[in-house]
Amino acid sequence: MALLEAFRKYIADNDLATHDDRILLTVSGGVDSMVMLSLFTRSGYRVGVAHCNFQLRGAESDEDEVLVEEEARKYGVEFYNKRFETAAEMEHTGESMEMAARRLRYAWFDALSREHGYTVVAIAHHADDSIETFFINLLRGTGLRGLTGISTQVGKVVRPLMFASRKEILEYAVANRIPFREDSSNRSTKYLRNKIRLGLIPRIREINPKFTSLMRRNIARLTDAQLFINHGIERIRGEAVTTENGLDTIHLDRIDPAFPQEFVIYELLNSAYGFKGDVIDSLCHSLRHGMTGRRFYSRERVAYVDRGTIVVAPIAPGDACMVTVERGVPRSYCGNSALYFEYCDIDAIKNFGVPEHIAQVDADLLKFPLTLRRWREGDWFIPFGMAGRKKVSDFLIDAKVSMPEKERQFVLLSGDEIVWLVGRRIDDRYRLTPDTENVLRITKEIV
């Protein structure tokens, strides 16, 4: 009963929902979402249940679907189910499984809400999920904003279990005989989140058994600090940023020298324009060394240093979005995608037949730095498996690539030679052969 009372109080204190709302519960069949279904129905809210079957775990996925439908019927609430062709979507877009599944499910939740009048969408993330996200972002170097965990509410999406730990949720399920299913992928250390959940956190908890409650307080303080920073950055933006003819100019001499300048630049460029941390680091390096002329890209904007200012503009249709890829960098950005670079020995390559969003090339044939840019007329390469040259334009026509996709097409070059028509085909000259010793494995992911 303690969890039920805490749940009702958490919703009221945070104004997450009222009894006038229609609430769409996203239920996977796992213990978290099945407990959420129980808590909402026992509290008298008007709810419907949405279940996504991503068809990635064979019979397990279908059994999850059956369980959730049976429970929805038991509670007498509306049940919605959708089967996604997730694997095909991943192959088409080049996204990771997590990113493809996230995009598909949230688009469907939004469509269901509009069609059936749901005013709130409830997700069953809890306190331990937020702590795991803290460590994931800490390892990725996302800055303070990434250390604030998972938000309790974003628009109509709410997370009403953020007050509870995984242990408390499981104890409630056992005490109330709530059926649930365990996703076998949760035991795999293939994924970073699971490595943190199964490896790192248990060791920290051995040192401090009160680790979960301590981290809740830490994340709450970090969230307050980020809110304070957001307010201060908006004041600085009003004083230091001007807009004219579609260009935003950050006047560095208008930023109080008592403030850490590079931190302020990071917050200004990241929050409003979506520039990534490592891109901003490169820009600040150019600024420190008086380097001008280089252009730095986010998904929709380009920034450059100009006489003590940083100019931010929309990316023009003909902009090549050219960036330099130095040896050893972990990732680089092209349009709405990121390329992740991994160097490995040929003996570590288990699968030579990889999907199109992954390229495996002979690292010893590459001339660094590499260049990443949009393709242009006149570009040609030797597609893997072919003996002759082919124009990129002809390759895209033969592949029936739409005009919008053509405009987003990038190439990765070594010197003047195309190594990879990104997300489609490597150049045959850089393929792995019996003589290959070192491999550069490049993965494209939508960001």
Topology (elements, then pairings):
Blueprint: H1 2-13, E1 22-26, H2 31-42, E2 46-53, H3 59-75, E3 78-83, H4 86-93, H5 97-116, E4 120-122, H6 127-140, E5 153-154, E6 157-158, H7 166-175, H8 192-207, H9 211-240, E7 241-244, E8 247-251, H10 261-273, H11 277-288, E9 296-297, E10 301-306, E11 309-314, E12 323-325, E13 331-334, E14 337-345, E15 358-362, E16 370-374, E17 380-381, E18 390-391, H12 392-398, H13 403-407, E19 410-414, E20 417-421, E21 425-426, E22 438-446
Account of the 3D structure:
- This protein is an alpha+beta fold and 447 residues long.
- 39% of the residues lie in helices and 22% in strands.
- The strands form five sheets. It has a six-stranded mixed sheet with strand order 3-2-1-4-6-5, sandwiched between helices.
- Helix 6 (127-140) crosses helix 8 (192-207) and helix 10 packs across helix 11.
- The two termini are 42 Å apart.
- 30% of the residues are buried.
- The mean pLDDT is 92.
- One of its GO terms (molecular function) is tRNA(Ile)-lysidine synthase activity.
- Its main location: cytoplasm.
What's this entry about, in short?
The chain has helices at 2-13, 31-42, 59-75, 86-93, 97-116, 127-140, 166-175, 192-207, 211-240, 261-273, 277-288, 392-398, 403-407, and strands at 22-26, 46-53, 78-83, 120-122, 153-154, 157-158, 241-244, 247-251, 296-297, 301-306, 309-314, 323-325, 331-334, 337-345, 358-362, 370-374, 380-381, 390-391, 410-414, 417-421, 425-426, 438-446.
